[in-house]
Amino acid sequence: MKDTCNWDMRSDTMTKPTQEMLQAMVQAPVGDDASGEDPTVRALEERVAQLCGKPAALFCASSTMSNQLAIRTHLRDPPESLVCHLQSHIFQYESGGASLHSQAQMIPVKPNEGVNLTRGDIEKVFVSDPYGGHKAPTHLVVLENTFSGVVMPFEDMREIKEFAREKRVAVHLDGARLWNASVAAGVEIRQYADCVDSLNLCLSKSMGCPVGAMLVGSTEFIEKARHFRKVFGGGWRQAGVLAAAGLFAIDRIWPTMADTHRRTKRLADGLVALGFELALPVHTNMVLVRSPKAVINTQQALIDALRPRGVVLGNFYEGSLRIVLHHQINDRCIDIVLEEAQKIANGSEMNVVNG
Ligand SMILES: Cc1ncc(COP(=O)(O)O)c(C=O)c1O
User: Fold this and answer.
1) Which of 100, 152, 163, 258 is deepest in the core (most CB within 10 A)?
2) How much distance in Å is there from the Cα of 32 to the middle of ligand 1?
3) For 223-262, b where at least 16 C-beta lie within 10 A, e where not — what string?
4) Pocket of ligand 1 (CB under 6 A)
5) Cβ(280)–Cβ(291) under 8 Å?
6) What integer pLDDT is reported at residue 355 of this predicted model?
7) For ligand 1, atom 7, which residue shows the shortest CA distance?
8) Residue environment code for 169-183, b if the CB has 16+ CB neighbours within 10 A, otherwise e
9) Locate the Aromatic amino acid beta-eliminating lyase/threonine aldolase domain: which residues (predicted)?
10) Among 11, 13, 59, 64, which is best to mutate for testing ligand 1, by the most ligand atoms less than 8 A from CB?
């Protein structure tokens, strides 16, 4: 692709549609999707459902909408609760939507060990019994993969699926970046999808689309979610213009993801070799850089040094500087980050705080 130079590493949402993607959007056949008449939306929904090995999919405006529709569709009999990761997007960053839209109590859990939730973590907080009416029974488990770029082990997902089956509750996967997990772990999307009842896949993050996310599940589930999407104001019209970007991304951008992961690893290894510390293992497209012992604010020094060189950093996650790669980050950009990091490590650009 020609016009792929975009060195904004704050997030993989910072991609811009390429000329080729825009061409695909302009040329897309369209119709009224609210009446089920947009052929490009239908093609995208069928394509993603097939990729997931599930009967149906729904094109949504965002991953937040897709996750919230999933929760609303699974939880039909309040008062109910759902179990999720303490740092999950649905708990931390969806504006309390599960409480507002679905009257759900969220039970956030911190993993006992490691980064992702395991069956044991979920078992501990799961509410099987309303306890004389004092508790909200758990009817949904929500997982996130990748979690801050870290791939959830497939075996853990399988064990959680078994547990949910025993308890007869649903599992929803926020797989905003499941595209990355699949590429990094060599596990097919449909294998992950087989562990859950519904899943969200984002198109506007590492896939490089301007808009969109896919909710995937059974035919009955997606029909109900489609009805709720209308209630949420998400019944759109000639959305094929946007769906065309999604089809383009699956064919043309997803296959480049392994390169993005290789660049991410090169960046992470280079930073570690220079003495920088990482907060989480690097599996996919994210590097979380710690500031060692708060003596030297290496994070701010890196942000400041890179800005004049055209590289944008600046998002923090739990005290770590989050560097995110996407398909428009090239090798030259990684070279520049490592050059500036080297200068900081050598002390020439150090920004000393606290004396
Ligand atoms: C894991 C995860 N899920 C869901 C979302 C929500 O996506 P959006 O902001 O596009 O609604 C995000 C956004 O960053 C995310 O990282």
Assistant:
1) 152
2) 27
3) ebbbebbeebebebebbbbbbbbbbbbbebbbebbeebbe
4) 62-64, 67, 89, 144, 174, 176, 202, 204
5) no
6) 32
7) 63
8) bbbbbbbbbbbbbbb
9) 8-289
10) 64
Reading the block at residue 171, the tokens are 């599992």
Mean pLDDT, consecutive 10-residue segments, the chain of 355 residues? Answer: 73 97 98 97 98 98 98 96 98 97 98 96 96 95 98 98 98 98 98 98 98 98 98 97 98 98 98 94 96 68 94 91 97 97 76 40
- Compute, in angstroms, the gap from residue 63 CA to the centroid of ligand 1: 5
Single-letter amino acid, residue 12: D
CA of 174 to the centre of ligand 1 (A): 9
Task: Quote the strand ranges of the chain, DSSP E.
Answer: 56-60, 80-85, 104-109, 138-144, 170-175, 198-202, 213-217, 277-278, 286-290, 315-317, 320-324
The whole-number pLDDT of residue 296 equals 61
Q: Identify the pLDDT of residue 302.
A: 93
